[in-house]
Amino acid sequence: VKTVTVELGPRGYPIHIGAETRSQLPPLLDRLGGVRKVAVIADARVADLHLDTLEPCIPNLTAVLHFEPGEASKSLATVASFLDGLAEARLERSDLVLTFGGGVAGDMGGFAAACWLRGIRYVQVPTTIEAGVDASVGGKTGVNHAAGKNLIGAFHQPSGVVIDIDFLETLDQRDFIAGLAESVKHAAIRDGAFFDWHEQHVKAILGRKPDSVAELLARNCAIKAAVVAADEREAGLRAILNYGHTIGHAIERLTDYQLRHGEAVALGIVAENAIAVGRGLMSAADAARVRELFTALGLPVMLAEPLDPEAVIDRCRLDKKNRGGEINCVVVRQWGATERLDDVTAEEIRTALSALSAN
Ligand code: GLY
Q: Of 15, 224, 212, which Cα lies nearest the Cα of 134?
């Protein structure tokens, strides 16, 4: 078992990574103290496949609340149904929510925990690469609004994260691959050696070699933990995690969430790299390396259908991180060296999008 700690003082927590790490749950719940009831908030598919394996590790399991898999479930209405479930189960302030599934489970379950009784504790048990490398760590919780992705939410740190790679086995290959986009993102923004590692381990990663998967998860969690520890509420540094996400979120929304989040992020990174290259901030060679790595990993670098650039621009204008009505994005100058742009123009977005449909 590898353990990474998110150093946030009294809000700090461990992330346990490896095979059979679900066995870490009873001691974790014990250490948290005072947990009389645990309500599981689970993706229905994941629950069908794995709840029987997880259940014996949750001594005080009181209720299991399901939702239909998929981004379409990530709404206030679903969270309201969880709150009804928590009320029915009579969860008290010292009780706990355990989220079980991918990013959608963690975001919504964490948000329900943040709202119930003005905030109770929760533990994340992510079952996808995307959630394991990104969403389960850092305390961003919430749901989508018709106006855009993740526009409603709260910062609420989990009390622990348990990534059991056994639960990843049933993840289909498309979802497995989609999660790798966030891993490449972390490498590009923080760790050049880790970028090289991806290039060197494409086969082992795609073949899901347990050692490589565990190493990938642990290195990502360490990167994310360090960024979150330095800037929990995204006052500065944490914004670098949004590399690829300004255009990525717009694409995700405009394709009606038919793409996986990671696929949209890969496209967003390719497009935002084009902006960086256009400004002379990133070398064309580095941008090409990112495209090649995505392609080798099976991630998209082209849009299947062109999108209306004006619609993308409108969506980008709604991004949470904008200041003064201008479009923002994060660019990578070199591996590990980022810069935040707060003045991206509509023309730059148009040009960036053409990078996603060029033959
Ligand atoms: N996924 C970006 C963040 O947690 O800040």
A: 224
